């Protein structure tokens, strides 16, 4: 087993005891001019009419991290690295393509980064004033960050791991012990662990972790579950892909897997993977995750980013893009995709009246936003029409700052197994930038959220506190008679990652569209990591690869357009 190693970080801001007077104003960040807003609201709690001010002084933070696992020798890591090298080693273009990309989430950032690596000039446009898309974050009036979601970086994310290496920021990932930790609803305040031995290879280490845990599943249940999984182990990828037509619940019934396996394991897993329950989630999603986690020794090992994603991950990508001649522009919202008479893209029209032209165009916005931008002339083309099946799932991310340090937690991601909550973490422990020795800040994913996304923040916090009272029975009470809330932030995303329901797979588009010079990027596009950060980064690489491969055709097309514009009109 690995022993913990110590890492340190100097930051400013040491006074953690906070009280507040008054009410912060509501902030809203709009994903699209046609799209529902991200509602972000903070509660300010009164404390005897006094306002405490943050004092700024150097603070030495010490967190217990675990060594970065040796990922470089895995097949998937090597394949991801080979794809990255394609861009660096490709022939330098005689005239770089100017590629206009809409959306600066991970997919758009990845597309722009790898196009720049290949010698082209990306112009990346972001509608909002913040980078990251579904990993965006904001700083409140006290200097505290709140995020769109609780983001975990797995060992089984080879393209993301390569990206961190290419940017020289591998040390920004805080690796945790190789475990999966589940709350025990029937034993409030207790947890059950799946510990993966470092001395055993995959998949033996995963099997050992399951066999050693006798709190969640009985031996007969484990045996029946293993027998149910045999076809997936023997059938490989063709079998996995064939299960897209079944929900997790339907598959389990078909395979004779006991209902308790669903209750004890798959409800939590489904909500963590796609924010929905097993009676909706495609079994293909579960099997892909199990395959990655069980076939790679460190596949299920988790890391937290050491700070807020826009600054700690997105800005290094932006700096890389700009250093190679690319551009990144915030507050640049696409209003309309204007077309030429032949149906190809003429330019992107922005809401401020400007028009952005290029040799190629990419939409890296979420699928729900892109569907609003699809020109009428394209709407009956099968490639675009099939997108109607892909719909983003609502999710809510909750941050609560308490007046004390909670003890019943771990320096890790925790599966709540709550009917309302998915996963959570005490970010004052798991993340260097958010570290606080005196106060806990819980970040929680509220899912499924379709029945809650329209409710008030107060209702959501009240419901969250009721669930937390079960997870922290000695420390938290729903009426705050124990730990007190200092403040909270609720971030609602009405349309997050696409909902991985059965029969979605045939509707996922390739990155190269049937429209010459137009491409898509996003985790909903065709790639093997489904709806995830890894899927977003891989989609961007595949999109950039398609554009580089089409260089000659795109360059010739641009020359013809330029020549036609220069032809004088006969009088």
UniProtKB/TrEMBL annotation:
The protein's matches in InterPro entries, at most eight in alphabetical order, are given as: Amino_oxidase, FAD/NAD-bd_sf, Phytoene_desaturase, Zeta_carotene_desat/Oxidored
Localisation per UniProt entry: Plastid, Chloroplast; Plastid, Chromoplast; Membrane
Keyword list, A-Z: Carotenoid biosynthesis, Chloroplast, Chromoplast, FAD, Flavoprotein, Membrane, Oxidoreductase, Plastid
Which Pfam families has this protein been placed in? Amino_oxidase
Q: Which Gene3D superfamilies match?
A: FAD/NAD(P)-binding domain
What pathway is this protein a component of?
Carotenoid biosynthesis; lycopene biosynthesis
Q: What is its main location?
A: plastid
Protein name as annotated: Phytoene dehydrogenase
Annotated source species:
Urochloa decumbens
